[in-house]
Specification:
Ammonium transporter fold; NH4_transpt_AmtB-like_dom; mainly alpha; disordered N terminus; membrane; two-stranded antiparallel sheet; two-stranded antiparallel ribbon; Ammonium/urea_transptr; transmembrane helix; ammonium channel activity
Length: 489
Amino acid sequence: MAAPPPNVVPIAYQGGTSLAVPDWLNKGDNAWQMISATLVGMQSVPGLVILYGSIVKKKWAVNSAFMALYAFAAVVICWVTWAYKMSFGDRLLPFWGKAGPALGQKFLIKQAVLPETTQYYDSGEVETPVIAPFYPMASMVWFQCMFAAISVILLAGSVLGRMNIKAWMMFVPLWLTFSYTVGAFSLWGGGFLFHWGVMDYSGGYVIHLSSGIAGLTAAYWVGPRSSDDRERFPPNNVLLMLAGAGLLWMGWAGFNGGDPYTANIDSSMAVLNTNICAATSLLVWTWLDVIFFNKPSVIGAIQGMMTGLVCITPGAGLVQGWAAIIMGILSGSVPWFTMMVVHKKWTLLQKIDDTLAVFHTHAVAGYLGGILTGIFAEPELSTLFLPVTKSRGAVYGGSGGVQILKQIVGGAFIIGWNIVVTSIICLVIGLVIPLRMPEEELLIGDNAVHGEEAYALWGDGEKYNPTSHSVYADDTLHSHTSTGATQVV
């Protein structure tokens, strides 16, 4: 074998030696996986940062955007330090993996026959997923890291406008460690739900159901926004809100398209189904707004888009296009009904202040999608995704009827775990630092919490503290003399 070029370190594998591109590495799969990870990352930063910063009242723009940005950074460090192995490492419990770092350079071994475990040549460590992607471990770690990050950021949507930022800084690593990793291992990492045959193609349960339920639970413990904010909470920038939503929609190609861990037929089906369902759902939600409220709502359209994206996620690569349309019709109507009708009649939901209705757009839509996957999952596509069991949707007969029960039970586990664990986390944090901002910060907003403001404009009713600035922030409140001095009008 020829000597490697200068500065290229050979990689040992399967008893031999190769250059930086060994025979087992599929460069196409690896490229698509890294692109998918980047697309999912862009859903969070800048997608949700922009969406959160613009969909809230002006005085909370900075705080809301920063909660998303901080969570993203915190999850990255926690993920590679211990959480990845808890989600995809050796089994500690039927629903949890052993903690450990994912910082080394491990390389996947190509195996011609489907293995029971995915092995790494250089350390003898064994990972639990039953599939063997043909690319480095680093690609998998980063792709799954982006899923973990967006889960926490979605959860933040329930507590915007009142959660103490210091409490949030404690909440992020605790919820990632004790809640997210459990769902990820149970359904994706080789845990008991995975082996039982519960299907969650790309996170309808692991990400959306968990963040929706945890968000509602956290909102209960944190308490509501100020009465003024609950009564009037207009978006501060509708156009930027649409831009953030657009990044989410386009980024979902990586969210669902990257989950087969290869650029195959399944990934193409997932991307097409994702867009079909999202478009259908947006249209249905908008039509319902027009029929019942006589006006098409832009926020409503975004919510319909979101529920469509969430609903198709657990079955994106498992269903046919006609099923994606049906799922879109239901995702545009069922969460609309729970938000517009059930929420207003259910006393408990009325008491809990879920700022961005994450419960409806993610928990309801995610659970709905999981159950519909149990109905519409096509047998051959299901075999590609979940070779552990002969899973199929109910419409295809055979044992398909049992799949619906599995989907319901799997979702119930995620719901129960998140209610209990999120409550414990909030109670523990509350012993150290208040979960809720003090009243003065709630009254003023970003300027009190961060000493910063999104726009140099004032006049929509917030209390303004002029002593914190050397110059005033709004010409409608103050005028400038010819000498440059500032006078109060």
